[in-house]
Model the fold of this input.
Amino acid sequence: MVVNDVDIAEAQKVVDEIEEAGGSARASGHDIGTRVGCEELIEGCAVEFGRVDGVVNNAGIVRDRTFLKMSDEEFDDVYRIHVKGTFWCSQEAARRMVEQGTGGSIVNTTSGAHMGNFGQTNYAGAKGAIASMTYTWAMELARYGIRVNSIAPQATTRMTGAIRDKEGKTVEVPFIDPNLNAPVVAYLMSDEGNYVTGQIIGTGGDRLVIMDQPAYGATALREGGWSVDSVRKYFKQSLGNRLESFGLRKAPYPHYDGVGVPNR
Ligand SMILES: NC(=O)c1ccc[n+]([C@@H]2O[C@H](COP(=O)([O-])OP(=O)(O)OC[C@H]3O[C@@H](n4cnc5c(N)ncnc54)[C@H](O)[C@@H]3O)[C@@H](O)[C@H]2O)c1
Done:
């Protein structure tokens, strides 16, 4: 196994643990936020171990800022590392697995934040893109015996250490052992998990949860289609009282009385 982290000392710690447990691994320090970094990472795995059986896309960063204040740089950095890094590593690995004819497994890392999370336009959007890529690759790659899933983990890590409140102070979060996410990843990578694809699995702490797939819900039909007049006349009574709650915390729909403009 190749364990990659741009901070190679972190990767080496994982390698040491794997070797202590009797496994075989090598650390690498490629930047997965570049195509060439992903190419070299996957190439290095193929050279060292003779083939590629799977890839776990776990690297990530946060650059939280409210939508009105977020810069292009904050948006692009998060997208490059999460979305493009996942795209590049998976594509390099999948091309090899197709060539080998061996099948394999891809495990991406999304987040409940993709449901919408205050201060995380870049991160929520990136994690939503990863969820959508997961469904798409599961459809495209099944014919090659490659399955594609995501985890939506929970853990106390360096990333959660970066959470700040509105005053910019560090937020204390209850400790969740990061190790508790790993067994599901191991299962999804193993031959025993060979029937699971296209799924997002919430992991961490005591939980193991399948995320509902996005789907069209409440529907109103009108013969001949909807005009501006008929939407104005019937929207509120047909669907307007069935609006969905939104965001990670799923509070009941809060705006039935209108999304008011504040008084100046
Ligand atoms: N911690 C949580 O509760 C939580 C919740 C949902 C999703 N996630 C996701 O889990 C994954 C792991 O995050 P974590 O919480 O362990 O955070 P972490 O900061 O401890 O780990 C992320 C690692 O990615 C590495 N990395 C960053 N940019 C890289 C690059 N360009 N190339 C190679 N490596 C790079 C970092 O050096 C770091 O070691 C991330 O994708 C994160 O978005 C975490």
The pocket of nicotinamide-adenine-dinucleotide is lined by residues 5-7, 10, 31-33, 58-61, 81, 109, 111, 153-155, 157-160 (CB under 6 Å). The domain at 31-210 is CATH 3.40.50.720 (Rossmann fold). The CA atoms of residues 147 and 197 lie 5 Å apart.
